[in-house]
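Changelog excerpt

This revision adds worked examples to the README so contributors can see how folded entries look when concatenated. The first example is reproduced verbatim below.
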Amino acid sequence: MIALIAGPNVVRFTPSLVIPEADVREGLARFARAVARICS
């Protein structure tokens, strides 16, 4: 999964077309944890 900066307040994710849904969920969970650590 690739995260792209799409504007000052936007992060766009571009997962592979053949990525399992579980991997997408895991990637988003990791991103959420990283953001929480930065914002705390």
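The second example, added in the same revision:
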Amino acid sequence: MNAGGLEDPSDYLLELVEQALEMGVYPILIIERFHAFVDIVDDHLLSTLSTLRSLEHEFQITTIAISPISYAQMRKQMAPTSAFVSSSYGDNHDRAVPTPLSKEDFVASAILRGLKTGEAYRLYQLGGGPDLFYERLIEAKLSGEADMIGATLASLGDHVATFMKRSFSEIMDGSGEILARLGLGALTLADQSILQANALKAFVVKETATGSVASTPILARWAIMNGQPDWRGYELSMEALQAKDYERASACLSEMHHAHPRLKCFSDVVNLLATLGRGVDIGMLSVEWDRVGRSATLVAGNEHTPVNVRNWACQLEGYSKMIAAAFGKGERAQLDKLTVLADDSLHEAMLIYFVSAFIEKVKKLQSATAKVKALATVPEAIMQGIGAARCNIKYTSAPELDQSLPYADFFAGPGKFRVPEVGAKLDLTALLVVVSASLRGTAPDTILSDRTKVVKLQSKLVQHVRNPYAHTSAVYDEQDAQYLIDVSEDLMFAWKAGAQLPTTANPLSEAVPTADYLIGLLYGDFAIDDPTPETAGWSSVERQSVS
């Protein structure tokens, strides 16, 4: 019973309105959570709403009802428990549907929070959904998060699920298939029809040249994570990628049935990374190039592969074909059979990339002896490559050498240096002497320009490292390992100094897609709007990543 002694809420409502009108006050009732009626199972509900409707029709009160769901959705949800389902309350009301935050309002807000104008425009491309999504996205950007979509989702917590359950129950009540397709950007015509019937559709989907897709990568990622029953496998793979454990990342996907070509593309990229990232004792310079070629072909041929990843895969595919062409069927790929081809600029660039990446991989080994054994033949291979590329000298068969060159200046002894005869095979000592003498005065200053360093290389590298490795099962300490690493890097610098390398990054190191980049492939975060006038001058990578 209320303060006026009235038991029926509709009587109390009539009394309040009457008192207000007698005082000359026109009442405006604002119901901020009109959808809360869904959870009310009360005998007075229908009579109260009927009274309210009558008062409105008599122009004695104006009601503003705020709800994230429509009357039709409320009736559907209340049908099992309440007569509200048959009430026509609200059918004759004017309806105002909010729209997502505009670009202008977002940019203005982001600038006030401290972002630069360009950053604000770029960040807007990742936004969508309710205003809270935009707010948390700005916070993630200001916090310097590398994975802004993931950080935004984490900060939103249960808000996304609450919004979707209230406003899009037609999606959430199902088996999750529509949700998964929303996250994958693969909505069917039937799915699109369901979404188009919802007044708040602009918060969830947007139209692109290929049809309806999630309004924001934030929602797309949430949808795919909650709609795919086996999504945990992809998350575990992503965690392994973050740790650069490529074999584990690949193993997490080995039994997966990929529900979309983009997920298959992600899996193929991970398998390619795993093939490239195997241990230092497998394949030529730790790479099984026949497997790389097959994996790279799959990645390059998938229409969902991002441009940068496709270019990377195409480069690896091309190198695999070059290696296959250099060896006969069934012939084992060996580095010293490729170094003689370094007089060709394409082969030279390929070899420089391969050897540089291998040195970096070896540096990560824990054992000093393992490092030395892995690099023991690398300096000789580098000298073979420099000889072929710069001096037209192939170590397998010496050409007629200029007898007037200062070979003696670079020879450590003992005795007098004997110039190799035509057709003779050049060992490491002969390469160090002949190549250094041939390059004197014609190449940039490097380790091979320094007579003292070349002489020391013959005594320490050849006699104390290379020869013991070839003829004994020697054990080496960290000092030996670091020496060999330094020598290999110095010789690589000498090789690169005179090379005409392409502008592309090394596909075995710098150009390898990072885990943060592959997040975009896995979750579809690359599917943003076309560039705006403010972003038209940016590269595709800049538009796809605002971090």
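Reviewer comment on example two: Residues 103-228 form one domain. The radius of gyration is 35 Å.
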